[in-house]
Amino acid sequence: MTPLYALLQISGPTTEPGFGFWLLMTVVKLIAIFTVYMLGAAMLTLAERKISAWMQDRHGPNRVGKGWLQPIADGIKNFVKEETYPEAANLPIFILAPVISFIPALVTWAVIPFAAPWGSKWGVVEMVLAPLPIGYLFILAISSLGVYGIVLAGWSSNNKYALLGSIRSSAQMVSYEISMGMATIPVLLLAGNVSLSHIVTQQAFETWNVINLTVAFFIFLVAAFAETNRLPFDLPEAESELITGYHTEYSAMKFSLFFIAEYCNMITASALMATLFFGGWDIPFTLWDNLAPHTGLKTLLTLGAFATKTLFFLFLFMWIRWTLPRFRYDQLMSLGWKFMLPLALAYIVAIASLILVLQMLGFAQGSWPFHLGLAMFNIVAVIVLFMILDRGRIISPAYSRLNQRDVEELRAVAGARRAPPLVPESGD
Amino acid sequence: MQSTSMAHGSLPLLYTFHFYLFGLIAIVSALLFVTRKSPVAAALWLVNTMFCLAALYVLLDAQFIGAIQVLVYAGAIMVVFLFVIMLLNLGQGIRNDIRGLGWKLTAGAVSLAILAEIFALTKARTPMVLTLPQGYIAQQVAETGAITPIAGPLFNEYLLAFEVTSVLLLAAVVGAVMLGKERGGERAR
After folding, report:
1. Hey, which residues 155-174 in chain B have their CB within 8 Å of chain A?
2. Which of B58, B80, B86, B148 to mutate to test the interface with A (most CBs of A within 10 A)?
3. How would residue B29 be classed by pLDDT, with cut points 50, 70 and 90?
């Protein structure tokens, strides 16, 4: 650990900016993040349609400004459309729900470091809005509030499909939050701290966590899909069963806000995966970007690295959406509780013991045998998981068939309800 | 990190302002929570109260407790509350828990006693053992991170008490499952 901290001393902020400059830069970062985020969400709707078109061998949106201005046209359309309010709705909560679903995704960005610090003439500017010491816990806390928007939307609409969607979503999101939190405990074990800047620095000086903790990354990835309600886990809005689930009764801009919230959640989840497992803003194979002096060039290049990683995960979200079919609800639940959670817990124990063993053998964290040991363990674990245990368990929706007893019970119920045949069957 | 130390050092006014702001919102939300008739509205005001309490913890430099407050209470327990309220579709004909003049007077007397206790406590001096020097926690957080000052005592000095508490909670969960389970019936597994 000592060489890491020695390096941290060098790379740490050298001069603190004055209060006025700090305030100015915070406001600038605030506006910049908000603008980029909103524009990003708008462009992602276009990207999703273009990528789906590309995967299905068709053109996609190609009318308004050759397709590029489609998000603007959609925005204008949503603003001028009629707002409908269902008569039986609980109006204050009905209006509040889209707002609540949108805010947590935005607030999470306050603690994600998106570039190397910029050593300006007036002091070093941290490229993160609020470098909280509890960084990662803040993200868990805020993202656990995201479920309120969906739950309240479904309840206040006073519509059975909406209510079913929201009840599904609250069960789904609470279940997968646990796997998500458990999957990141190994990350915190290696970093020894919950501050996100610290996690990024640790990965830059040692190895990216995707190599150290591959299994944790896959658990986090699957949980992120469930948390953002994306296919194959978009059960809260399963069109074939629930019309569109929790936002059935919403129209115009209030519907659009749910749509924006979904894309914002995707951006946040992608940025988190990049930060926790892919080194954040770190440029691989070099320490040049992590060490002082912090120039503007380094800030720009690391910002590019961070954007590349985040965009890759956004593409992955869309790629999987147009590849995998939707899970059945009981499959989703048994995957979360019977497979992912035990796996995450076992992985925590395995990694903790492995770290202990490697340190007892005399390999300090940060030395190459330590990370080679972790990597070897992960290769074995991934092979066991995906080649042996996974056959029809993680990816295939055929997992968790109903047991025979339940099937017979259901058939008996259905048989009792079936109308008696008009012509009595005769044994001819 | 530098911003929190600033709030205490050079900007006491900002600190006081936020303390009273969140305190006021917490009290108003708590009042609305106990007076609302609809269970969903009451639950939402309770979430708001929890949130303001978390903000007060952060102002006291207890960021970890603040985050856990939001994560556990607002993010998990209250979601389950809402889930149950929605699932059972509660809130049709509610009867007040406190009925009759005698109960109302008792409730008022208990509230006054608690209020008097708070006033008495503000006058009393905290024992020296329980107080920390000014800015001690902020310094600890800056030196070792936000978790170490809590995790250290919890897993070193008070490990036994911590583990025994967790076993107690586990026993409570197992007991609740056993009580909730249908006994002997056809569907019991």
Report:
1. none
2. B86
3. very high
**Closest approach of A115 to chain B, Cα-based (Å):** 18
Per DSSP, the three-state class of B124 is coil
Contact B147 A148 (CB under 8 A): no
Residues A13-22, mean pLDDT to the nearest whole number: 69
Distance CA A350, CA B178 (A): 32
Buried-state track A262-300, b at ≥16 Cβ within 10 A, e below 16: bbbbbbbbbbbbbbbbbbbbbbeeeeebbebebeeebbe
Most distant CA pair in chain A: distance in Å? 99
Please give the biggest Cα pair distance in chain B. Answer: 69
- What are the residue boundaries of the structural domains of chain A, listed by start? 2-326
Residues A107, A265 contacting (CB under 8 angstroms)? no
Residue with the two structure tokens 């947590």: A104
B90 lies within 8 A of chain A by CB: no
% of chain A exceeding 90 in pLDDT: 6
Residues of chain A found within 8 Å of residue B70, distances taken between Cβ atoms: 141-142, 144-145
- Give the start-to-end residue ranges of the domains of chain B: 2-94+125-132
Which of A132, A141, A167 is closest, CB to CB, to B71?
Answer: A141
B2-94+125-132 has CATH 1.20.120.1200 classification = yes
Nearest Cβ partner for A19 among B6, B63, B68: B6
DSSP character at residue B72: I
pLDDT at B38 over 60: yes
Residue A204 tokens read as 């830059």
A172-205, pLDDT tens digit by residue? Answer: 888 888 888 888 889 988 888 888 888 888 888 8
What pLDDT, on the 0 to 100 scale, is given for residue B7? 42
The C-alpha R_g of chain A, in whole angstroms, comes to 25
Task: With 0.90 as the threshold, say if the pTM is over it.
Answer: no
Query: Token pair of B76, please?
Result: 């998990």
Closest CA–CA distance from residue A234 to any residue of chain B (Å): 19
Cβ within 8 Å, pair A194-B6: no
Share of chain A above pLDDT 70, in %: 90
Residue located via tokens 């952060």: B58
Alpha helices in B36-146 (DSSP H): 39-59, 63-68, 78-88, 100-123, 136-144
Give the residue-averaged pLDDT of A209-224: 89
Residue A394 CA from chain centroid, whole number: 18
